[in-house]
Fold this sequence. Notes:
The chain is mainly β. The chain is 11% helix and 49% strand. The chain has helices spanning 65-68, 117-122, 146-152, and strands at residues 3-6, 10-17, 20-25, 29-34, 49-55, 58-64, 86-92, 95-101, 103-110, 113-116, 128-133, 140-144. Residues 1-5 have low confidence and may be disordered.
Amino acid sequence: MHENIRNESIPWLIFKLNESLYTVNSRLISSIVIKPDDITFVPKVPDYMEGLIHLRGNVVPLINLKLLLKIEAEANLDQGKETQEMVVVLEKENTMIGLLVDEVISVENIAAYEETEEIKKIYKDGFVTGLAKSHRNKDVLLILDEEKIMTNA
């Protein structure tokens, strides 16, 4: 088993998709906004492409992470709790992309995480690269490769 343990302490954004927690490195995040009501439909794009949104004068493609990662959408069993979907906007070299998430939880420094071959085999597309532990409540976080999402989605 090849494990690659990283020890850089960089802020990571933790968010929810269904009941699972995911994290992305915050260095490419330019903003986090509430999912806008106005989404421009784009024909003949992959199903995970939700459409285009306008954000501060920019047109930003909106990626539905659940569809990209092939996660089944769960029926909201807790009807009393209304969650507002959020868009995490990533920016690199003047390219922007929005990731649709269920709920933003927190930003925290994650000092160590593991990239394992087992995780890479389970998630063959390479979008999920490893596991980390949250310092606050010891939850296990799935690490997303934000750069791979930006270049391949």
